[in-house]
User: Fold these one by one.
Assistant:
Number 1:
Amino acid sequence: MYSVRKVTDDLYWVGANDHRLHLFENIHPIPRGVSYNAYLLLDEKTALFDTVDWSVCRQLLENMEYLLGDRPLDYLVINHMEPDHGASIEEILLRWPEVKVISTEKAFLFMRQFGFHIDGHELIEVKEGDTFSFGKHNVAFVAAPMVHWPEAMVTFDTTSGALFSADAFGSFGALDGKLFADEVNFDRDWIDDARRYLTNIVGKYGPHIQLLLKKAGGILDQIKYICPLHGPVWRKDLGYFIDKYDKWSRYEPEEKGVLIAYASMYGNTEAAAQALAARLCEKGVTNVWVYDVSNTHVSYLVSESFRLSHIVLASVTYNLGIYPVMHDYLMHLKGLNLQHRTFAIIENGSWAPKSGDLMQKFVDEELKNMTVLNERLSLASALHPDKAAELESLADAIVESMA
Ligand SMILES: Cc1cc2nc3c(=O)[nH]c(=O)nc-3n(C[C@H](O)[C@H](O)[C@H](O)COP(=O)(O)O)c2cc1C
């Protein structure tokens, strides 16, 4: 059975939702599922913008057959050919052998690399600034390299103001009937998954997102809809989400607040993390979030690190090193290029505490544009009352640095 939503009079969402996949890219948990969005334009010519993951191809086909009726599919526009969107390309070509495929040179190369049989079909290679007409609707193609793959482009419908934004402006989370961001409480129910999606998946390519935002900036007043490949479509309050993207891609925190990430085996470092959280709240800083790195998936830690201005690393020493799970979290921050945060350190060890120096070295040498506060809390096995003054000065230093 078809399941489509109308975006405009002649543009339809023909994608599908997936609640079965546990790990997006086989790494990021998606407890709220995910949507694969594709859009069908019924103009004088018909055009499908992107396809869907293979797991939901059947739904895409039913949606298209319903809307097309006796009409042929004239064009397939591929903005992004990563398999969660491109996997159904070949099926579309098999069912509509006359369809002409519009995409970038690199995307065609990737299609061949992935083994799609595209040759023998009419391929229309486009690049930055090229335009095309489907009848009433004229579109312009805009290169979006590394948002999130090098072949990516976005397509702007200059007639309707719809921006087919590929992976940009996407989010984890299945739509479950609600297509538009204004049909949900986005700021309450979606923003965390949108941030987790963007920061973990494209976080490394902030400058490339900035480039795309600059291009979009020139036509901001003409953009009426943002149609991403995952998550809700935007037709109201576009500035809210564009502003979030701007912050994330400039590595600026959204909020003044403290993330306390602790690594603890027997609970003593955890107790110190809790004591610090309590002291901070006592001093009026209540935007404090405490996470155990061992039972929090790193994608959430990354997302929270992008949200908040301050990060406290509290780790036991483990075989003269940083606790491995904490080290993994730090490696993710490095890989995703996070910058402009203030760090504080709590270390623990029973015979040769090293984690403090090592975490400091990591932040200083492996991350960019970070500040580490001088005050450090160093524990020999457990936090005792004789450390109250050190704890206090660490809390004070954090509060002062937030002013
Ligand atoms: C496998 C293992 C390796 C450890 N390596 C060190 C070490 O190199 N140096 C050290 O001072 N303590 C080491 N410790 C001890 C813990 O870091 C220490 O007991 C710490 O206080 C535990 O804090 P927690 O209660 O938060 O787990 C090690 C403990 C384990 C289990």
Note: The chain has two domains: 5-249, 259-402.
Number 2:
Amino acid sequence: MKARTSHQTGTSCLAEMPAPLDPFDTPLLNVTRLTKQFSGRTVLDGIDFSVRAGELVAFLGANGSGKSTTLRCVMGLTEPDGGSIELSGSDLSGLRGQHLLRARRHAAMVFQKIHLVPRRSALENVCAGGLARLSAARSLSPAFFPKGLKEEAMACLDRVGMADRALDRVGRLSGGQQQRVALARALCQRAQVVLADEPVSALDPHAAEQVMSLLGDLAHRENLAVAAVLHQPDLALRHADRAIGLLKGKIIFNDAVGNLTSDMQDLLYSPDRGEAA
Ligand SMILES: Nc1ncnc2c1ncn2[C@@H]1O[C@H](COP(=O)(O)OP(=O)(O)OP(=O)(O)O)[C@@H](O)[C@H]1O
């Protein structure tokens, strides 16, 4: 955590004194000069961004602009070519093996295509999030759940309004309900950073609003750092604090959603502007 300078705090008399540290001012996710090429084609062109505790950041941009690749690089699902990624204060580039796995557990990813085990109950799936943060790989069988995990998982399901469906098989839940279970699983993992890749693209407008409200609550009430790839700028305008706009693998907008003008939206989504050359 870096002390703010007098320039950043706007004070001058405290220039020689370390500023008091403000946890809300510290990014839980800090990405610097991230680059990625596929087959020689630049997909991420040295992007910098951060996400702080307590904020919901929307990633916007045309198809192919690099949004998913960005989140996948953070999660280690895609190997970046360059740049650094800091998660909850740990620089991932300096870590290997168990240390890297442990640092990555601070982040959880929620996908459009929900990665739950359909034949297992909502409760068992949420417990699996808790198992992810425990060291040894364990079976999803309830017989192996550590003491207290079920109670915590129930509390997480309650938090997303799904406690009454805890014992239902996930395969019998609607898309919106499954997405809420996926968020409960991230909560049970005790992730500090939640990355959501098109979490509402497969949902009807009502369910999409519910899931976006929940993402906002995770940021604003649970104080998590939340980043979501969205294809609907209007959802970003209603729910996010900040938007990051990608164009051909570069960030061209990174500001409060209130400053996302229609001209900027046109630039982000106009035809033939998406993919990097
Ligand atoms: N594994 C891969 N191999 C080759 N090319 C890839 C791979 N993953 C992504 N790409 C390419 O990288 C570019 C960016 O893809 P990415 O999925 O990050 O875009 P996006 O902004 O999330 O798009 P969309 O809105 O369509 O989901 C695209 O041209 C895509 O084809």
Note: DSSP finds nine helices and ten strands in the chain.
